[in-house]
Amino acid sequence: MSDTISGFGFVVINQKGSHVKLQRKDGRRTITTIVPTLSELGPGTLHGALKLAEVDNDAF
């Protein structure tokens, strides 16, 4: 599994059940986040996933 999520540089690392693990390299760091594969996320879930991914809300 190595699909790139366009625009943010994340790569799908793993999927377990209804969640996907995404990862991107940012210089010397590796940023990892886990996102549910629902067709629509609640605002709190979306905000939490963006925070873990270190993606600015305005960029999304």
Automatic annotation (TrEMBL):
The keyword Nuclease applies. Keywords: Endonuclease, Hydrolase, Nuclease, RNA-binding, Stress response, Toxin-antitoxin system. One of its GO terms (molecular function) is mRNA binding. Belongs to the HicA mRNA interferase family. This is Addiction module toxin, HicA family. It comes from Candidatus Uhrbacteria bacterium RIFOXYB2_FULL_57_15. The lineage of its organism: Bacteria, Candidatus Uhriibacteriota.
